[in-house]
Amino acid sequence: MWKRRLAWAAWLVAAAVLWLFENNAATLTLLLASILLPTVSILSAKRRAARVRMTLAVPPRCAKGNALHASLAVEPLGVFSRTAGRAVCENRLTNERAETAFSFSPRLSGRSALTLAVGTAHCGTLRLAAEAWTEDLFGIGRFSAGSCDGEFATVEPELFLPSVLLTENTTVISDSERYSQTKPGSDPSETFAIREYRPGDPIRQIHWKLSQKTDALMLRELGLPVVNQTLLVFRNLLSEREGVPPEAADAMAEVFLSVSRALVNGGYAHTAAFAEAGRFLLTEVQNDVDFRAMEERFLTLAWEADDGALSRLLAETPYAHVAVVSAAPPPDAESFCRGNRVTLLTASPAAETAGAVTIPFSDAGYREELHFIEL
């Protein structure tokens, strides 16, 4: 813009010199027009900037791979100035940022709108924002016309259905005062339900006193303690040695959510963990409602500095099974193994880590079956 201002100043000097030498009506008209027209346009742009109203409409959800179409409208427009601006789109989960410029042609009055098409190659929550300014027709002056607060849209991940085999771990003993309300277990100190005996049921669980009263064999189903058994971790942590490309972050998110969904479908309550605002947030996921709530929050994540928070979390609370979704094997991975089973799910093949089983995302068989393996 400073180049145009210098050009205008040079033009005024040339017009003034021409008028001084020619001293006629034509050169005077040229000089006055060179002063008045840009001045009127600049004043119009300044006045219009105080009146411009901009609205940004963004659909709340979009399937991954489809273009997200947002509508941007500006009113009112003027004939002596033009309105332009910049739209910015950010995906915190994949660390992507893109921006595009837009402009509206001068018009006498009314409202003008345009459509912004945003690519959605990766899942996450998109934040769209826009700022606008008014300019005179000669590009000499620019005045801020305000901005739109960020609007958010969720790009839905493409989940797959792995078969997760969760085996018992007898090396971790966790007492619990809570019992499942939906599944029987093997704890003789708590009764889950009383029902009629069926062939194949263990004889030691027959409720003999009640059977005598009802003249039928009745079985006492034992309670299932609800303990900290499975921890599923999304390692959205960065260190100086790591750089997570968008493709890896997208794959990590889909693997994490797919495994959580598979655990819910299999009836396995678990704890989902991810870093947020400098600490690890723990979310209990027991059913579909819990999963949906966790997914909405998860897709808004950003990447956090790696300060050893995950190691401290595992040291404070023992879990029988720990699965860590990470772009690369953590440098402190061996500290995760505290008598439990640890599975590292990484975005690329990596060297073996003592005490852990590593399954790379690139393994084609990985999408068919995941195993939490005893170490």
Largest sheet: 6 strands, mixed
Q: How much helical structure, as a percent, in the residues?
A: 10-25%
Instruction: Look at the structure and give the mean pLDDT.
Output: 80
Q: What is the distance, rounded to the nearest whole angstrom, between the alpha carbons of the first and last residues?
A: 66 Å
Query: Could you say which overall geometry the principal axes of the C-alpha atoms support?
Result: elongated
Determine the strand fraction and express it as a percent band: 35-45%
Structural key phrases:
375 residues, six-stranded mixed beta sheet, 20 strands, disordered C terminus
Write structural notes for this entry:
The chain is of the alpha/beta class and 375 residues long. 25% of the residues lie in helices and 36% in strands. The chain is built from 6 helices and 20 strands. It has helices at residues 2-22, 25-49, 208-214, 246-265, 288-298, 309-316; strands spanning 53-57, 61-63, 68-75, 81-91, 96-104, 112-118, 124-136, 142-156, 163-166, 187-196, 218-223, 230-234, 237-238, 270-276, 279-285, 304-305, 321-326, 341-346, 357-360, 369-372. The strands form 6 sheets. It has a 6-stranded mixed β-sheet with strand order 15-14-12-17-18-19, with helices on both faces. Strands 2-8-7-4-5 form a 5-stranded mixed β-sheet. The chain has a 3-stranded antiparallel β-sheet with strand order 1-3-6, with no helix packed on it. A hairpin with a 5-residue loop joins strand 7 and strand 8. Helix 1 packs antiparallel against helix 2. The longest helix has 25 residues, at 25-49. It is elongated, with a radius of gyration of 33 Å. It starts with a helix and ends with a strand. Residues 170-174, 363-369 and 371-375 have low confidence and may be disordered.
